[in-house]
Amino acid sequence: MPRRCWLPALVCTMLGLSWQLLTIHFNYGGNSTALFCTGSGYPPPPALAWERIYVFPHSTGYDGQFYHYVAHDPLYRNGIGRAVDDAALRYRRILIPGMAWLLAFGRQQWIDCTYFACNLAFLFLGARWLARLLERFGWNIWFSVLYLIVPATLVSLDRMTVDLALTSLVLGFAFYTTTGSRRKMYVVLVLAALCRDTGFYLTLASVVPLLFRRRFRESAIMASAVVPAVGWNVLVSLRLPHGAVSASQWMPFGGWIAPWLHPAVYPFSTAINTTVRAFDYVQLTGLLLAFVLGVWRWREARSSPIRTACLLWAATGFLLPPLFQQDCYSSARVFTPLLLLEFLESLGERSRLPRLPLAMVAPRIWLQLTPQVLGVVRGLFL
Hints:
Elements: H1 6-27, E1 38-39, E2 55-56, H2 63-72, H3 87-90, H4 95-103, H5 111-136, H6 151-159, H7 163-179, H8 182-195, H9 200-212, H10 216-223, H11 227-239, H12 254-261, H13 270-296, H14 305-317, H15 328-334, H16 336-347, H17 356-368, H18 370-381
Parallel strand pairs: 1-2
């Protein structure tokens, strides 16, 4: 009963908004731009001085600061886009920044609000699609509220990255795969390819099973979903500057050896340092388990779009460069789609092993947010 799924999705969204309002008020002095996580290593452009952007000292910030600039200058015309670290990479992920700009009708003073609204809208959609999927598997739809605490959701609410949008679209992909709704699936594929590079995986995952069934006309139609994103990517590649990317960074397993041999050092006591490192190792193990499970059933990819998507994300995981392991957020948010797809598949099977990676990866994200939670608790009760 689809109408019942709106309520848990709405509750999930309101909880996400409430958390943002609380942390902005108690941890950042009411400055909402803190959610973009702008670091002093990348000073805000002079054209946005009027926003009084919250800047974290002695920090390089996070990805959200660059998508913030893209939203203010989506066509790379007013100079704000020059503050983006790798314009050719960031501008390809135009969905959220572009939607924010369009909803604000290009008015600079409205763009931050519409950016936050777009992020929350995808939280609502993701929770609703998850509720519909849980209903199909015979689970209580109110478990969809827990979508709020999966890695991609928490990171995107905290640092305004585009991963929540893509993860929600992946849930839409999983839902429409079960319903056979081609038109709605097509819209999801178009949006996913515009959202992030890995969004192309969904189109490929839809096309591969059709090709094996020799349904060439349908596969061509579904493949055309990437045309808007391809056209935009070509335009970006021709007009915008590129960052320096070394091919050696993508050496197989290169990104997984360094964290084990050279674990992160945190500015805490020995006991706390040891505890945080333990969570790091659990997270790394959970991700590796997810990749193994994604590759293990590769033969099913020819008949299942979801298995094809899992295989693509898992194969990418083995090629991660060390850059993705510099903080606990990076790989966890990028591979949340894989973690959720494997979790959902396990609901219809007897094996509970595919549920384990998500349970191993998420706690490290929760731990990272502990200082903010304590700040809110102190503000409310002390």
